[in-house]
Each structure stands twice: as C-alpha cells, then as structure tokens.
Design brief:
heterodimer, A: 267 residues, alpha/beta, eight-stranded parallel β-barrel, 10 helices, 22% strand, globular, B: 206 residues, Rossmann fold, eight-stranded mixed sheet, four-stranded mixed sheet, 14 strands, 25% helix
Chain lengths: 267, 206
C-alpha cells in the first residue's frame, strides 16, 4: 500500500538553514547537509528546501546546497523559491534535486508548467499554491477562466503571500494539473504559522479536485493535525516545519502516532 | 567500468552519486562505444517513454543496449529504464520500445491518483541475492504512471500493490530492472545497488 509521506520543510538563505533545529546535538544546526542527514535518519520521506532569499545571486549558493545534500542523502529532494524559468529549473535538477517547486512564476506564466513537464517530466514539477480564504463573496467577477467568481472560496497569493493573484485556488490547481503539474504543494495562508491545524476544507477541496498527489502545508502544531489532514483533508503527504525543527515531535513519533491509528507510513 | 547511460534523464546524477557513495567508480556516458565496452551498464530513467526512446535512438544506443543485455552483461534498468525494455508502451498513444523483454507497458488503473508517487512495499517473490539483507515488504520510492507487464511471469522477482499488483522488480540472469528508484530509497535502496554490483556476473567484473 502506498504510504502517506511526512515531509519536513527547511528554509534556506545564504546557504544556511534558518530556523535551524536546536534540540539535537549537531555540530552546526544551520548546516543543510547535516540537517538533511538528520531528518533522513529520523525517517523523513522526502525533504523540501525552500530558498527564501531567492535573488539571482542566491541561486548559485542554493545549487551548492543541493549538490552537497544530494551526495549524502538518498531520499527525494524538492527545491523551490524564486525559480523563474526553465534554465533555473534545469540547474537545480542537475545539481541533484528530484523535483522543483514553482509558485509565483507559474501564476505569471502558466506555460512554465507545461514546458517544465515536457522537458523534465511531470513528476519533477510541483506547483506550490498559497491560498487564502475570501472574506466575502465576489459580487462582480473579473473576466478570465481562472478569475474569482461567486462560487470562489479561496484566492491564490503570489510573491511569498504578499500579492493577491485574483485567481481561484481550486480552478488554478485544476489548471496546473492539466498543464502537467505532477504534484500540488498546498499552503493555507490562514492557518500557516498558527499551529492550530491545517485548513482541512481547502485541502480536501483541492485533493478531491485533482488526480495528482496533494501535500498539505500550513498549521501543523500537534500530531492529530497530521492525522486530520490525511483523513479529513485527504492529503497524500503532510509538510511541517516548526513542530519538527523545534523538537515538539520527532518524525518517528509522528509516524508511530499515524501508524497506530491505521495510516500506512514507512517506519 | 560501470557505465551510466546519459540520454538526458533527470535522475542520472542521483544514480551516479549513489554508486559513488558505495565506493564504486562510474562513468556517465552518451557514447555507444563506451557502453559496448563497459563491464556493467546502468540505464536510469524518468519522464516519458516516447522521449526516452527518441533520445536513445538519436544517440545510437538502441542496438548497444540490446547487445549488452543479449550477451548477458550485467545490466540495471531503473523506472523508465525498466519500461523501455519491453516490446511497447501504451504511453503517448503507443510507443515501440526495445523489445528485450516481450510484453507491454500499461497505464495504471483508473480510480487512483496518478502518478503513483511515494514509498510503497516490494513483495519479494523468491529469495535472490538482490534482496540480501533487505526485509520482504521493505519500502522503496516510486514515481510512475505506467507499469511493465512482461509475458514471462517467471522473471517477476518483486511485486507492489497500487490499484493492482504490478511487477516492481524484474530479474533475468544478469539483467535487473526496478520500477522504483533505489537511488532515492534511503538505506534499502543503497543496499540494493550494493547487492546488484556484488552479485552480477558473479562479481567477476570488478
């Protein structure tokens, strides 16, 4: 049976992991290779590295990080943050990433998804969606196939959640998959950082709308949140940062918890 | 020399790094002559069957691959590197493949999420040196939308369930092929590479 994946997310800037984990004895809590190896030993099913500087000079540093991590750690590696074109994607993949995650660039130029899928295969292309619930219904919808309309519930944001994109998250997810996205990394901006649980309605709506795996992100604070995202939210994988980085729970604990409740995991 | 065929597949470097991690030296090459003179040949793969076949044809790699396998040279196919060994694939409306193994590559059944992406168990059909030290039912990392369905079921050494039970490891003499990515399957995956390199050709190639 296909297991549900537990994915720690590591934010990188200047070649260092920020919010580096401090609860274990590592020589250097900010070293990406050491942290990746640590999470691998803990049983992480995959790793996501997010370049939070994402300027063009940072790209070369990120390539070194990916090179280093992929020499030591033999589990799937997804890299995102500021990838703008096919060449950016190619360089990261050649450095040893298995998948690239694109967000703003995909919204601005959806063809990047199809070009990337054609060049590298759909399995390489993760479309990250930052979604936020609409506070009120849309009265006068804009033109366009993805535009928010009366039935819309969540809007897509770009540029690290700073810019409202004016498009419907559900329609965007469906479109991204049509174009060749192999996976959706779905972050709720409403729940992210609150450690109060994932946005289960959003996760379920997107997961049921698309036929590719959906990774739930944003809001994990307790192990039951992971369980709920998988069972109620129908997520195929759960991503978390704080609960693992700060040692609230280990990945092993999360997996044992899920396994005891009947969720198939890789132990 | 271990030779990893370079036809632009995305996981080429991961395969090279896994082999390097085990202490072996491998050459990454796009030249048919180097494949023909290699002692072990690895065909990695991700992406689509059509693109892969076109790339292999453009490099003049089709006959060399058939030749080394036909000769019983140690060979490892990974993911799409397994699928292209069959006669043809349903992918992209139908694609002729290498026809080293009679059979078809079929689409995973409807009603489940595709691609089959993530860690899943490999059921070992019979003991084999490839599985040495690896528990039956160990998890390996899969990413694929199609699966190989060889006519000769006796070569199916491992099976995995996703919608149906499909062959995830095929072994025929010195030819080994896996649907999953051992280079992304943590310790068991590295162990499988190590086992392969130890047992193939009786280890005499080293």
């Amino acid at each position: 049976m296909l297991t549900k994946r537990i994915i720690p997310c590591l934010d990188v800037t200047g070649g260092r992991v920020v919010k580096g984990i401090s609860f274990v004895q590592l020589r250097d809590a900010g070293d990406p290779v050491e942290l990746a190896a640590f999470y691998d030993r803990e049983g992480a099913d995959e790793l996501v590295f997010l370049d939070i500087t994402a300027s063009s000079d940072a790209r070369d540093i990120m390539i070194d990080v990916v090179e280093g991590v992929s020499r030591e750690v033999f589990i799937p590696l997804t890299v995102g943050g500021g990838l703008r074109n096919i060449n950016d994607m190619r360089r990261i993949l050649e450095a040893g990433a298995d998948k690239v995650s694109i967000n703003t660039a995909a919204v601005l130029d959806p063809q990047l998804i199809s070009d990337g899928a054609r060049k590298f295969g759909s399995q390489c292309i993760v479309v990250a969606i930052d979604a936020k619930a609409l506070e009120k219904k849309i009265d006068s919808p804009e033109e366009g196939p993805l535009a928010l309309d009366q039935s819309s519930r969540w809007e897509v944001y770009t540029h690290g959640g700073r810019t409202p994109g004016g498009i419907d998250a559900l329609k965007w997810a469906e479109r991204a998959v049509e174009l060749g996205a192999g996976e959706i990394l779905l972050t709720s901006m409403d729940t992210d950082g609150h450690q109060d649980g994932y946005d289960l309605e959003l996760t379920r709506a997107i997961s049921e709308a698309v036929n590719v795996p959906v990774i739930a992100s944003g809001g994990a604070g307790k192990l039951e949140h992971l369980y709920d995202a998988i069972t109620i939210g129908r997520a195929d994988a759960v991503l978390a940062a704080s609960i693992f980085h700060y040692g609230t729970y280990s990945i092993r604990q999360a997996k044992v918890y899920l396994s005891e409740r009947g969720i198939p995991v890789r132990l | 020399m271990i030779c990893i065929i370079d036809y632009g597949a995305g996981n080429l470097r991961s395969v090279a790094k896994a082999v390097a991690r085990l202490g072996y030296r491998a050459m990454v090459t796009a030249r048919p002559s180097e494949v023909l003179s290699a002692s072990v040949v690895i065909l990695p793969g991700v992406g689509a069957a059509g693109d892969t076949m076109r790339s292999l044809e453009a490099l003049g790699m089709v006959d060399p691959i058939r030749w080394v396998i036909g000769e019983g040279r140690p060979f490892l196919g990974i993911c799409l590197g397994l699928q292209v060994l069959l006669t043809s694939s349903e992918e992209g409306g139908g694609q002729e493949c290498l026809d080293v193994l009679p059979g078809r590559v079929r689409k995973l059944p409807q009603g489940i999420k595709v691609p089959h992406m993530g860690w899943n168990q490999v059921r070992q059909m019979s003991p084999h040196p490839l599985f040495e030290g690896i528990p039956d039912g160990a998890n390996f990392y899969f990413v694929h939308s199609y699966y190989a369905d060889p006519d000769d079921r006796s070569i199916v050494a491992g099976e995995t369930d996703y919608g149906i039970a499909f062959p995830s490891v095929i072994i025929k003499g010195n030819m080994v092929a896996t649907q999953f990515h051992p280079e992304k399957s943590g310790d068991w995956g590295l162990r499988m590479y190590d086992n392969f390199l130890k047992f193939v050709g009786g280890g005499s190639w080293r």
